[in-house]
Specification:
- α3 links the parallel β1 (65-68) and β2 (89-91).
- The protein is built from 32 helices and 16 strands.
- The chain is an alpha/beta fold.
- Bound molecules: 2'-deoxycytidine-5'-triphosphate.
- 2'-deoxycytidine-5'-triphosphate binds at residues 1-3, 7, 230, 234, 290-295, 333-334, 346, 394, 447.
């Protein structure tokens, strides 16, 4: 990943641009309005065509409603034309209820699951049917095995259409249309928005139909967001690959098979690798390895016919002849080098890219493919050395000093690149030099599909010509400052004194740049990188109205964070809630459909009381933080929850608590110990990271618990301590999880009565938090029937 954050613009830096864009949109009645009008114009004629019998050449596709997934041959335009001319329907969005057939040439695994109960057919089903003048049975054209109910029908033509129409009870039925037009840019790999010809409830955004996006207060929302967010995948893979490196390094059985092969080939088989490490020359040599146009290369593996043509990976299907496509704001994740020659860049909007390169082809995302290639890349490298620093899914550094005794850097780079290409099917580039900076800059020179080694005597000449914006630590702001004083290259920068740089850019930044622009970099390779935090951020598709929806969203994100913690075997002691709140001067709708737009960022950290991975506890602390901000739910645009102060958790991954797993100790502490102390947490210490289920309902009387709580109320008249609150919260959750719902409810009502009667706002707030917990998703899973008065 050679670009640094080029797709991310910070709010401050993009504020003015966005504002300008929004003002432009405002001239046309707002972004949504302009988009809607565009769609009305575009599809009005199409709708007429669909509805007018006289325009149909035949009725062979009567009752057939097709959604085209991803790149097809012939293009979706041709297929659409066939359908419309022959009484079929072309769906711009995937709709579970409307779509009868999905047409695709290939499908990622996630999509296969998604369409698992639809007929997924090859495009030739349509073209052949047109050619034959009749609707051909689609059995022979199935891309996926037929899992639909229609397979039981003998006549696979018209009967399948009727059956496919009502399968709303499938798991995919969460993908219902939403009247307010949920965006598909992120969620669906296809065109932007479409005309909805069905009646929709009021109030509504009239003609925009809502495709496959779950509203933000639904439990599936976070999972859907993460399943489809490439940025989430990128960060997730990075973490996974760091873990992979850690695992490999700590595996005593790990074999350096590639290195052994090299030794053998160079007749050094008697020299073991530890010996080689010892005779390492003092001068370090590092290699930086980076896959070329990663997503695009993986996509091209399934489309070899497009090799050499300009190709991008984006959520898009359209072409340059379509005026609508030219306005597409779908972002390009990766473009191949032929596309770059035409001026297309990663991060560019599809519309702009098409105007630069009309023959550009957009291919769909393939998250499984990227993950597979990444793993192969890392494993290949790890067969030569475990001195690896994982940078991202397609990029890493290695220390290759030991190899200098066996072969030249260029020889090794060639061998390694060839092996990576052979195993992954994708090209990569390698840069090498005496430090990490030089290695990375050398890769830029090497790309695409090349290698470059900067020897010591080349450093001076090489570094002078490098652009300052390519140096680590030079972000947009620093670059702007430097450009402002006429500094563009490292040679320019070398003319500035250390004191001047430190004065202008700060002591640390200025000092670093002074060294870097001379090709000096004191950073060392970091193969072991323990995790500092676990987090989840959702900044797309959030449009809420009620506080309760915000709390539900917090619950769902907390669950996702808790799941990540459990998967990593970690628990944390501190939570940070960060939210994006629509700026007062920003329009309600953002330039990017359902994006976060211009926002103010709020962030607050709070202790979790103890080291935990409990979703409920994380959620309740976040809810308390959120309430303290007094923000309107309708202004919320992004939520992130981060857990820090991490420790290894004792909770096992698939732990299922049982009542019997909790024995007499908790009973003792609950019924006797608690009375001794003023603090419920001290008195009833149930280790929070060790899986335990409270046994009170089993072994102790409810009256005991009430009396314990009564003592607690008396002992702390002013306000409940946070750690006691989280303890009660956890305890109630545990009761529910172990199916003691009635006991949990009784305890809640007992607490609530006390809190409401004591007229103390702190205690009342505590009761409200508990009530929210009772209504939260965590609990709903277990007892949909609890009704709170
Ligand atoms: N990526 C993304 N969004 C980002 C950053 C990266 O989708 N904000 C994805 C797409 C890229 C991949 O990560 O293919 C690797 O990122 P690079 O910056 O390395 O870009 P490429 O590999 O596409 O191009 P290059 O050959 O210039 O490295």
């Amino acid at each position: 990943m050679s670009g640094r954050g080029r797709f991310w613009e910070t709010d401050r830096e993009t504020k003015s641009r966005r504002k300008r864009e929004q003002e432009e949109w405002a001239i046309h009645g707002g972004y949504q309005q302009a988009k809607i009008q565009k769609l009305i114009d575009k599809y009005a004629s199409e709708k007429d065509l669909e509805e007018s019998d006289s325009c149909h050449k035949s009725k062979i596709f009567a009752g057939v409603s097709v959604f085209v997934n991803g790149y097809t041959e012939p293009s979706f335009d041709v297929l659409r034309q066939h359908l419309l001319e022959n009484a079929g329907r072309y769906e711009h969005y995937y709709s579970l209820s409307r779509v009868t057939h999905v047409v695709a040439t290939s499908l990622a695994l996630s999509k296969q699951n998604f369409y698992h109960n639809k007929k997924v057919v090859l495009p030739s089903w349509i073209t052949d049917s047109v050619q034959k003048g009749e609707l051909l049975p689609c059995n022979k054209y199935l891309l996926l095995p037929d899992n639909t109910i229609t397979k039981y029908f003998t006549d696979p033509s018209h009967s399948e259409v009727r059956c496919a129409d009502d399968q709303d009870s499938s798991p995919a039925s969460v993908y219902q249309e939403h009247p307010e037009g949920w965006g598909r840019d992120v969620m669906e790999p296809s065109a932007i928005t479409a005309l909805d010809t069905r009646p929709v409830p009021k109030p509504k955004m009239s003609v925009i139909s809502g495709p496959a996006m779950v509203p933000a207060d639904q439990p599936e929302f976070v999972g859907e967001f993460y399943g489809n967010s490439r940025l989430h995948h990128l960060s997730h893979w990075k973490t996974q690959l760091k873990d992979l490196v850690n695992d490999i390094r700590s595996d005593p059985n790990h074999q350096l098979t590639g290195r052994q092969r090299l030794l053998k080939r160079h007749n050094l088989r008697n020299m073991d690798s530890t010996h080689l490490e010892k005779i390492t020359p003092e001068e370090k040599v590092y290699m930086h390895l980076d896959m070329d146009c990663f997503f695009a290369s993986v996509a091209l593996k399934s489309h070899p016919e497009l090799a050499g043509s300009p190709v991008v990976v984006a959520h898009f299907k359209g072409n340059a002849t379509d005026a609508h496509s030219l306005g597409s704001m779908s972002q390009i994740a990766s473009c191949n080098y032929p596309a770059r020659q035409a001026g297309v860049r990663n991060g560019m909007m599809m519309g702009k890219a098409l105007s630069l390169c009309p023959q550009l082809k957009a291919l769909p995302y393939d998250f499984e493919g990227y993950s597979h290639v990444s793993t192969l890349l890392y494993k290949t490298v790890a067969s030569y050395t475990t001195e690896i620093e994982a940078v991202s899914c397609d990029e890493l550094y290695i220390d290759i000093t030991f190899l200098m005794k066996i072969m030249s850097c260029d020889q090794f780079a060639k061998e390694l690149r060839d092996e990576v290409k052979e195993r992954t099917g994708c090209p990569c580039s390698a840069g090498s030099g005496a430090n990490l900076l030089l290695a990375r800059l050398a890769t830029r020179r090497a790309k695409p599909d090349g290698q470059f080694y900067i020897t010591d005597d080349q450093v001076e000449g090489f570094i002078s010509g490098q652009l300052v914006q390519d140096l680590p630590g030079v972000g947009r702001a620093t670059n702007k400052t430097l450009q402002g004083i006429g500094i563009h290259t490292c040679a320019d920068l070398q003319r500035l004194s250390l004191s001047y740089l430190q004065k202008e850019l700060g002591v640390r930044n200025g000092g670093n740049l002074y060294q870097l622009c001379r090709g000096k970099d004191s950073r060392v390779l970091k193969p072991d990188q323990p995790r500092q935090s676990v987090s989840c951020d959702v900044n797309y598709g959030i449009r809420l109205k009620e506080q309760s929806q915000v709390h539900t969203l917090l619950d769902n994100i907390s669950k996702e964070v808790a799941r990540k913690l459990d998967n990593a075997g970690l628990a944390g002691g501190q939570v940070t809630l960060r939210v994006k709140v629509r700026s007062p001067d920003a329009s309600v709708e953002s330039a990017k459909f359902m994006g976060h737009g211009i926002c103010d960022n709020l962030s607050k950290s709070s202790s979790l009381g103890s080291v935990t991975s409990s979703a409920a506890r994380i959620s309740i602390v976040c809810s308390t933080i959120w309430k303290g901000w007094h923000v309107m739910p309708s202004d919320l645009r992004g939520v992130g929850i981060q857990i820090t102060k991490l420790k290894a958790s004792q909770r096992t991954k698939n732990f299922q608590p049982t009542v019997h797993s909790y024995l007499s100790s908790a009973t003792k502490s609950s019924s006797s110990g608690c009375r001794d102390g003023a603090n419920i947490t001290q008195a009833c210490t149930v280790p929070t990271v060790v899986p335990q289920v409270p046994s009170l309902c089993d072994r102790a009387e409810l009256s005991d618990v009430k009396s314990l709580l009564g003592d607690w109320f008396k002992s702390q008249p002013k306000a409940p301590l946070t750690k006691d609150k989280v303890y009660v919260n956890d305890y109630l959750e545990k009761l529910v999880r172990s199916h003691h719902v009635d006991t949990a409810l009784a305890i809640f009502l007992f607490i609530d009565r006390f809190c409401q009667n004591c007229y103390n706002p702190e205690w009342q707030r505590f009761a409200d938090e508990l009530k929210l917990l009772l209504k939260s998703e965590v609990w709903k899973e277990y007892h949909a029937h609890i009704e709170l008065s």
